[in-house]
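quick one, 325 residues, struct below
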Amino acid sequence: MPPRPFRSGGPVALLTLWLALTQLHPVLGREGWHPSFAAAQTASARSGKDIFLCFTGREWSAVCRQFEQHFLSDPGFTAMLGTHYEPVQLDVSAFREVTGKEEEPLPEEARLKLQFEVTTFPIVFLLGSDVRPYALTGFRPGGTESYARHLEKLREGRARQEALLARARQSDGLRRAELLAQSIPDIGALRMARFHGDLMREVVKLDPDNATGFARDFELKLGDYEYVQSMREMDRDLRWSEMLTLTDDYIEKFKLAGSELQAALMNRFDILRRQQNFPEMVLTLDEVYRINPYNPHGRQAQQLLAKMARQIEEQSLLESLQNQE
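---
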């Protein structure tokens, strides 16, 4: 006789399992929502509507559960979205700690969490037909009508972006650079570089002297993005010496100063910590502190230096006691 799939419980066990799955994954089968990002892309290409891409972490975020309960699960809210968007919700509760260093292929939700640099929840990306985000938002109190007005303003912003792009195509030189720069949405530095890097690089090329005031900022954002991507790749293989060299070259190339330099030096400290290079760790933190002791980086450096000093004192005391014995 072949083994039974459920040794005990029978129909009751099946019902319990079904209830658990629907509680963990209520978005599956929700009417009006696509089951995957790929499905939303296909539907968008067919309908011409934008994509409403929502990331949630319901298992550990009360705000996500509230957003889902009062908005995402509301048929009226779904109907409102369906007028202009192909909506998809990706719950990444199981991938909170994913870093991209995993050897096995990642599920769609985890890959997109990394691709869209998702670190806060809930977060919503509005994507055009080119699948580039043109706005981001999230949970907002006030009900469906209020949210609809909010989305309308974001679509108006998208229309302005497209109008600026159209004008840029008819222009050249610094005027083209300025129009291109104004058309790029502020969706966070790394996302801007990932999804709109081609436009940013064109601005930098058209404006080598930073006459528009955008080129230098874009050059730094592009440099940050390339640096972060390279650091992630090296970190995956534990290539710490190369990471230190890359960090030092990055600081020198962009002549970093102030808080930007502090942030890069804190990256340097983290690499040194993993190498257990105590003397260089102290020197790096001291440099961060001396740049500005009052901003968050400076205060963090001061706290770490104090912690390391306590560890030295404790180690010294322990060694002294052991010698007395």
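Residues 134 and 185 are 6 Å apart (CA to CA).
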